[in-house]
């Protein structure tokens, strides 16, 4: 009963899976949120249990269900819940001119409203703990081809700072903004190479880089309200145009 526990949303696939497995390796029991990826979640849970940690699946559709009940169910099973990691995300590219209400509602509900409400219920349910929001290094830009997605993630970054103020010192709230780590499967190698050209450290990231960032935030109790960009410096690569780099 003294083992700490972590709730990981979207923990069955991609980065969420890496975060869940690394938290288990660090000694946390895992509450694994799942929606449509049930089979993948069962595989992750089996692996975590093989490490000697408890892992339970908790189904919740963030577009329909009451997320307050998710926290209630998790704390009933894991009374020592101390970490909420908001990794679940909705992504659909479209510029402003093609963004409709349904797209806004879906992406804002999953990417902003749900983390906000989960944070609220988590803060009401635990004596102390940490919230870590997985954002995106795109929040450093104004890339209008991803209007609804990016606006929701920018709002999540601001919510992270706001919540850090409201819930400190009892709960620390921070965020991680990944760069080119796990590109979507449809991205070509030429596209990835082109993206790497804009990364100052000149290479793609790996999930382990994000896991290291996660554990830094978990263990450093003097960090609060920060968005940790793990992107090889891509988000600061904004020199701008001036007379010395004018090609004419």
Automatic annotation (TrEMBL):
Top-rank taxon: Bacteria
Alphabetical UniProt keywords: Oxidoreductase
Presence of keyword Glycoprotein: no
Keyword flag Oxidoreductase: yes
Pfam families: adh_short_C2 (PF13561)
Family: Belongs to the short-chain dehydrogenases/reductases (SDR) family.
Protein name (record): SDR family oxidoreductase
């Amino acid at each position: 009963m003294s083992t700490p526990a972590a709730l990981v949303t979207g923990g069955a696939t991609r980065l969420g899976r890496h975060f869940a497995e690394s938290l288990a390796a660090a000694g946390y029991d895992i509450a694994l949120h799942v929606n449509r990826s049930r089979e993948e979640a069962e595989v992750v849970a089996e692996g975590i249990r093989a490490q000697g940690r408890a892992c339970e699946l908790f189904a919740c559709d963030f577009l329909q269900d009451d997320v307050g009940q998710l926290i209630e169910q998790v704390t009933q099973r894991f009374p020592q819940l101390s970490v909420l990691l908001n990794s679940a995300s909705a992504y659909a590219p479209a510029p402003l001119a093609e963004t409709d209400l349904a797209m806004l509602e879906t992406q804002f509900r999953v990417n902003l409203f749900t983390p906000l409400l989960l944070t609220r219920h988590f803060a009401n349910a635990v004596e102390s703990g940490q919230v870590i929001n997985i954002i995106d290094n795109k929040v450093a830009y104004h890339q209008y081809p991803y209007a609804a997605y990016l606006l929701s993630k920018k709002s999540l970054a601001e919510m992270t700072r706001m919540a850090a103020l409201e819930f400190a010192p009892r709960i620390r709230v921070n965020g991680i903004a990944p760069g080119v780590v796990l590109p979507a499967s449809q991205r070509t190698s030429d596209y990835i190479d082109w993206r790497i050209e804009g990364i100052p450290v000149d290479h793609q990231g790996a999930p382990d880089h994000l896991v290291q960032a996660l554990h830094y935030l978990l263990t450093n109790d003097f960090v609060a309200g920060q968005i940790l960009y793990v992107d090889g410096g891509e988000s600061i690569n904004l020199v701008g145009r001036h007379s010395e780099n004018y090609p004419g």
